[in-house]
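In this section we walk through a basic example: taking a raw amino acid sequence and producing a predicted 3D structure, encoded as discrete structure tokens. The instruction is simple. Fold the sequence below.
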Amino acid sequence: QVQLVESGGGSVQAGGSMNLSCAASKFNYRNSWMAWFRQAPGKEREWVASIMTNVFTYYADSVKGRFTISQDTAKNTVYLQMTSLKPKRSAMYYCAAETKGSTYDSPGTYDFWGQGTQVTVSS
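The resulting token sequence is shown next.
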């Protein structure tokens, strides 16, 4: 069974940086999207960034230029480097993976989800 395990969350001051990791097991990353989503309390899950085979990357407009998604295929791990974190943007960050190679920014596309890691941004 595919497992996704996120790590690296915590507390950071606004303007600071944080790196998240997502280790995948029993998942074939080839021709499949892996992504990061986030969900703030009381809000819908929001797409952040997606990557396929460490070649194709896409970002939500709200994080473009500040976040970087990358992938270590040897370790089957996806990373999210976050800089210039904005105040009041605390959220649970989720790693997701899909097997169809289709739409990369819709939560409904993704078959597997991690448990999430909390990122708290203080002002």
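Looking at the output, two observations stand out. The chain has a mean pLDDT of 94. The first strand starts at residue 3 and ends at 7. In the next section we compare this with other chains.
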